[in-house]
Amino acid sequence: MTSMTRMTRNRLRVALLVTVLAAAAAVALWPSMGPSMWPSMGPSMGPSDPGTPPVVAAPPAPDMDALRARAALAPCPEPVGDAAPAGPLAGVTVPCLGAPGSVDLGTALAGRPALLNLWGPLCGPCREEMPALAGYAASPGAIPVIGVEVQRLPAGGLDLLAALDVHYPSVSDPDGALRRALGSPPVLPLTYVVAPDGRVMQVNPPEVFRDPAGVRAAVERYLGHRAVG
């Protein structure tokens, strides 16, 4: 075998080896081609992306006007007379639940007594005592009763009031401004008696009212018989 023949065979071996190595490298690189490479190969070449959540339509917003009409709450309190706001309610403004707009509670209740009842539509004891509060509010000589929905569920609150046939004025406290002003503990229901001079007294220990007479007794305990009509 001549030296020229040996050289030719060596070159062929080298060329064959290079071809084999190139093919192996191409096969080794395929798994590392992520999904970003697949679209260029046609829509049927790549798998679906399991990390993309399905598009879910947002639930429709509640029709607050319809809920308010169904609940038919008494109007939220407005200022009576020229008394200046005082006590912890001064400067506390909250949304009215039964109608659009807000209520400055300090100004609206200045110079007159009231009963504030903090509640929420998810509170079972609240649901139990609201008819008793409504019965008291409709009785002769009662001071104004104002419900305060504090669970940030105004639509659910209106629905519950309508279901219970409870119609005394109510506001909501979505930002917790009223609860902070009163230093309210994290329990429900809570009832406060507001004096004409702006003092706010928590009914303590907290109780769940069972009848209008129990509400009246609590009011008289904090305001006295003469302060209540």
Sum up the structure in keywords.
Glutaredoxin, five-stranded mixed β-sheet, alpha/beta, 229 residues
Poorly predicted segments: 1-8, 14-48
CATH homologous superfamily descriptor of the domain at 64-223: Glutaredoxin
- Morphology: globular
Share of β-strand residues: 5-15%
Structural class: alpha/beta
Count of DSSP strands: 7
| Count of alpha and pi helical runs | 7
- Looking across the biggest beta sheet, what order are the strands in? 5-4-3-6-7
The oligomeric state of the chains shown is single chain
Average pLDDT over all residues? 83
Helix content: 25-40%
Q: Can you tell me the CATH class of the domain at 64-223?
A: Alpha Beta
CATH A-level architecture of the domain at 64-223: 3-Layer(aba) Sandwich
Structure report:
The protein is α/β, with parallel strands linked by helices and 229 residues long. 36% of the residues lie in helices and 12% in strands. The chain contains 7 helices and 7 strands, in the order H-H-E-E-H-E-H-E-H-E-H-E-E-H. The chain has a 5-stranded mixed β-sheet, with helices on one face. Helix 5 (154-164) links the parallel strand 4 (145-149) and strand 5.
